Amino acid sequence: GKNRSPITGSEEYVFGTAMTATARLDSDYDYGAFIYNLGVRFLPKESFDKDPLYTQWYPTNYIHHTEEHAGFTIPNGSAPTGFAHAFVEFGWFAVIFWALLGYINRRLYLGALTGDLARQGYFVAFFIMLLYLMTQDLYNASMQAVYTFIPLMLAYGTSRVRMTQTVEAPGEVVGSLLP
User: Fold this and answer.
1) How many C-beta neighbours within 10 Å does residue 155 have?
2) Residue 142 and residue 132: Cα distance in Å, rounded?
3) 159-163 — which CB contacts under 8 Å span 24+ positions?
4) pLDDT tens track of the chain, all 179 residues?
5) In angstroms, what CA-CA distances link 68 with 9, 20, 26, 64, 72?
6) Is 176 exposed, middle or buried (0-12, 13-18, 19+ CB in 10 A)?
7) CA distance 22 to 88
8) What is the distance, to the nearest Å, from the Cα of residue 26 to the centroid of all Cα atoms in its chain?
9) Strand partners of residue 176
10) What is the 3-state secondary structure (H, E, C) of the chain?
11) Of the residues 2, 14, 49, 150, which has the fewest C-beta atoms closer than 10 A?
């Protein structure tokens, strides 16, 4: 059997550290396959068994995979955090991933400061996605993005009322009901 440690509770930092160590020591990275796993996730499970299609770092598998290599049981309800999961997906290139997220966040923030309602909505949605990324993993953050950004884009794209900022009074927002 496995060598069990006295670690109990919901110490996510233990899971994230063990997950990172598993990938690093075994050179067992997923190389961005979470995108492939997301595609598999949207396939209808009623048609066939999807489980064999997922990689070993898919959430239903990565707890067991990490437990096998770490030598202790991962506490129920633990999440590896986006920091560990990004490392598993991108290796040392995860630094570029985080820098890209920082760049996107800056662009969205500066856009939100213009007073444009759509840009403010995208910034808030992106911020929420980042919270999921930091506290959960890439899958939860990606699903948050899919289920938030697509409806926002549809709502803003089909909206009949366009919110614009006036030149005369920069703080005042004016909406028009005419097309």
Assistant:
1) 11
2) 9
3) 163/116, 163/117, 163/118
4) 444 455 554 456 688 889 999 999 888 899 999 999 999 988 998 988 998 999 989 988 888 899 888 888 887 778 899 999 999 999 999 999 999 999 999 999 999 999 888 999 999 999 999 999 999 999 999 999 999 999 999 998 888 665 555 445 555 555 554 45
5) 19, 13, 12, 6, 8
6) exposed
7) 9
8) 24
9) 162
10) CCCCCCCCCCCHHHHHHHHHHHHHHHCCCCCCCHHHHHHHHCCCCCCCCCHHHCCCCCHHHHHHHHHHHHCCCCCCCCCCHHHHHHHHHHHHHHHHHHHHHHHHHHHHHHHHCCCCHHHHHHHHHHHHHHHHHHHCCHHHHHHHHHHHHHHHHHHHHHCCCEEEECCCCCCCEEEECCC
11) 49
pTM: 0.77
Tokens, residue 141: 């953050």
Residue with tokens 């004016």: 174
